[in-house]
Inverse folding.
């Protein structure tokens, strides 16, 4: 159930927030404008179904149904943004907007009479609700900050690491086969022959194809002992990462939903 809308302002732009069953939901068009997306639709198409939804929002023209995104959805949108100030916006939300909301225990609380039993009960209930939301928010923030840390301090991560995070229940062979069949990676095993003409494994495999370059790249390194050059295929972090997850889901892979259910 929605309560009153709470407007905030970031860099002279409005950021409207709704209370939906005790959780903050942000008006998607407001966030998209700040994060540099062409439209709210471009931003929300990479979000999971439980990270976005239509809500009734009071506007100058009356109540309208608008697309909103959850707090986890906001973090995913920030990670996909190419705007240099996206990280500053996320920090503003986590350090100013959400704390201000949670200090009151509600978005627009009506004045309470602290001398009445009803008022005391409402204050205690609001405090308990605020504490519960803060605990959940801290858990979600830890997950989101871990992903930001990985993106900001690494240039990429292995396909195995990618699978363990997003698709832990999918066998590795199933993921590899799908990537081969869809032409994103090239299976180079079995493409060479020994002196008797029998097929044998090539020295490389799982390297990106032309179409796969959007999501993968090769990180080259030198084996100093053998003086040989090798390449590891890594997933491009950020927007390519989230787009790859969405594409694999469309192809039928079941994603790990744990990080969005905290």
């Amino acid at each position: 159930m929605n309560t009153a809308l709470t407007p905030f302002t970031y860099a002279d732009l409005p950021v409207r927030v709704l209370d939906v069953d005790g959780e903050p939901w942000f008006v998607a068009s407001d966030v998209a404008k700040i994060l540099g997306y062409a439209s709210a639709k471009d931003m929300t198409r990479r979000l999971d179904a439980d990270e976005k939804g239509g809500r009734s929002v009071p506007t100058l023209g009356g109540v309208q149904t608008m697309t909103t995104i959850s707090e986890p959805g906001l973090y995913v949108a920030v990670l996909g943004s190419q705007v240099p100030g996206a990280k500053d916006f996320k920090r503003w939300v986590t350090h100013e907007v959400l704390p201000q909301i949670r200090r009151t225990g509600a978005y627009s609380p009506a004045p309470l009479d602290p001398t009445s039993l009803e008022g005391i009960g409402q204050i205690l209930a609001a405090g308990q609700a605020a504490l519960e939301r803060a605990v959940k928010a801290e858990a979600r923030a830890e997950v989101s900050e871990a992903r930001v840390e990985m993106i900001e301090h690494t240039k990429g991560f292995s396909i195995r690491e990618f699978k363990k995070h997003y698709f832990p229940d999918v066998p590795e062979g199933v993921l590899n086969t799908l990537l081969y069949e869809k032409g994103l990676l090239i299976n180079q095993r079995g493409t060479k022959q020994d002196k008797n003409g029998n097929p044998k494994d090539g020295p490389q495999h799982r390297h990106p194809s032309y179409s796969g370059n959007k999501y993968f790249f090769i990180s080259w390194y030198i084996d100093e002992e053998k003086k040989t050059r090798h390449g590891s295929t890594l997933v491009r972090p950020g927007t390519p990462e989230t787009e790859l997850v969405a594409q694999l889901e469309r192809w039928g892979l079941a994603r790990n939903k744990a990080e969005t259910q905290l």
